[in-house]
Design a protein that fits this description.
Blueprint (H helix, E strand, L loop, with lengths): L5 H8 L13 H12 L2 H15 L3 H25 L6 H8 L2 H35 L16 E3 L5 E3 L4 H15 L2 H26 L23 H12 L5 H7 L7 H30 L11 H6 L5 H35 L18 H17 L2 H29 L14 H15 L3 H25 L1 H10 L1
Antiparallel strand pairs: 1-2
Helix pairs in contact: 2-8, 2-10, 2-11, 2-13, 3-9, 3-11, 4-9, 4-11, 4-15, 4-16, 5-6, 5-15, 6-7, 6-13, 6-14, 6-15, 6-17, 7-13, 7-14, 8-11, 8-13, 10-11, 10-13, 13-14, 15-16, 15-17
Length: 484
């Protein structure tokens, strides 16, 4: 339960030299990092799954509920990231407020969050690629575009089982190669792609609005089927828990604090700014999409935007938008992989993980060995796990991280009220408590098997902590040395 002093964290944030990350990100870069990951899988794939299986047209309400919970958590993240501008995000904040064991739990949880988040987007990227190529009479074998747990109908009508989702694995490898070459270069690639993605969203809204069929909104909240979470208000809440995953964008912004030029000022701007912009776009986008096509048409599809666009007369637009989505998904995977490696970088610097995760490339100043190892892990997820499973796993991991950060604000305000806070969460303790209640409520609406996977994952993490992390903790060794 030992805690890492904030003074020590601030000292680490000012480290320079060959073993330190390079500070190269301004406020616009940080906002674009947030938008880059938020506008992605949730908007272009999970929106359709949530609408088709849980919320119906009321998926817009699901997004508003998810955004409300995010707002509470975002304000808490903003205070921490300005006060403790180091890599690690919720892991670092937990280390300072709750102790090493809780820090390990949340760091290990973030590993799950970012891994399955990147895998979810990679799988959807693969589905859109298959759709795009089919327009040019290029057909990838279904066996090579689906996980072993999925089936598809071949051109001759036969039902075939997947073997490996090869395109999903390959895009993860490609993006990793970009990240290894440096944060500044990654940020430039991300900025270009984000500009394209926002343009796509605006074009879709502008064109799709005239193709809305009001009948698709009736009933706006479909009657519950008798199964908890399948339509009705319980379905709206289940949908909120599912789409909540897309809002981890501001969480990814906080992992880049040690690479921000002026973190005390720029981190709150990046976190809150990206959340506000994306929430507005999400609600309007979901409203247009469920107006263009009946929500039942989205059941079982990972490419709902393509279904909606088919209702228009602009087939060229279909091809252009799906191509832009393919390019845009790249930035989501990029930010996920970037955030994950920075969390592991911090854990490795603290001795809780092997040194390989914090080894810095002599030229690019990036944790390149960590990038390669995590790339292999995520590529396997993307290649062999269905999208529904990884999407729900990401949601529960994100929600747990948000609960811990909100709790950390309450603890630190009480234990260290005089610490300098460049940005302060308003209305404490109300905002953190509402954040905890909202996020935990959405966790309860996720399926039981998702909870089981989380418990198993955390149990594996605890075994690693007690057999390796605890024995090699840098902070623990420092304290034992002082006691001696």
């Amino acid at each position: 339960m030992i805690k890492k002093p904030i003074a020590l964290l601030l000292k680490e944030s000012k480290e320079e030299g060959e073993h330190a990350l390079k500070r190269s990100l301004g406020p616009v870069n940080l906002i674009l990092i947030g938008i880059g990951i938020i506008i992605g899988a949730g908007l272009f794939s999970l929106t359709g799954i949530a609408a088709g299986q849980h919320s119906g047209p009321a998926v817009t309400i699901s997004f508003l509920i998810a955004a409300l919970g995010c707002t509470f958590a975002a304000l808490c993240y903003a205070e921490f990231s300005a006060m403790i501008p180091v890599s690690g995000s919720a892991y670092t904040y937990s280390y300072a407020t709750m102790g090493e064991l809780f820090a390990w739990i949340i760091g290990w949880d973030l590993m799950l969050e970012y891994s399955v988040g990147a895998a979810t987007v990679a799988i959807s990227w693969s589905q859109y690629l298959t759709k795009f190529l089919s327009w040019f009479d290029l057909y990838l074998p279904p066996q090579l575009t689906l996980s072993p747990f999925e089936t598809a109908k071949a051109a001759n009508g036969d039902v075939v089982s997947g073997i490996i989702n090869l395109p999903a694995a390959l895009i993860v490898i490609l993006v990793t190669s970009i990240i290894i070459r440096g944060t500044k270069g990654s940020a430039l690639v991300n900025a270009i792609i984000v500009s394209l993605k926002v343009g796509v969203v605006l074009v879709f809204i502008a064109v799709g609005w005239s193709f809305i069929n009001p009948q698709n909104y009736h009933p706006y909240i479909p009657q519950n089927t008798g199964v908890w979470g399948t339509y009705g208000w319980s379905g709206i809440l289940r949908g909120a828990g599912l789409v909540f995953f897309v809002f981890i964008g501001f969480d990814a912004v906080s992992t880049a604090a040690q690479e921000a030029k002026n973190p005390q000022r720029n981190m709150p701007i990046g976190i809150i700014g990206s959340l506000v912009v994306c929430t507005i776009l999400f609600v309007i986008f979901a409203h247009v999409m469920t107006g263009m096509a009946n929500y039942k048409e989205f059941i079982g599809s990972g490419a709902p935007v393509a279904i909606a666009i088919e209702k228009t007369h602009y087939q060229w637009l279909s091809k252009a938008i799906v191509l832009a989505i393919l390019i845009g998904y790249t930035s989501v995977i990029l930010v996920d992989l970037l955030g994950q490696s920075r969390v592991f970088f911090s854990m490795s610097k603290d001795g809780l993980l092997p040194k390989i995760f914090s080894d810095i490339h002599p030229k690019f100043r990036t944790p390149w060995k960590s990038n390669i190892l995590l790339c292999g892990f995520i590529a396997l997820f993307a290649a062999f796990v269905p999208i529904r499973v990884v999407g729900e796993m990401t949601s529960i991991g994100t929600l747990l991280a948000f609960v811990m950060v909100c709790a950390g604000i309450l603890i630190l305000r009480k234990q260290q009220p005089d610490v300098h806070r460049p940005f302060k969460t308003p209305w404490v303790p109300l905002i953190p408590i509402l954040g905890i209640l909202t996020c935990f409520a959405m966790m309860t609406f996720l399926p039981g098997d998702t909870w089981l996977r989380l418990v198993i994952w955390l149990a594996i993490g605890l075994v690693i902590y007690y057999t390796y992390g605890k024995k090699n903790s840098v902070l623990r060794k420092q304290m034992e040395g002082k006691n001696d």
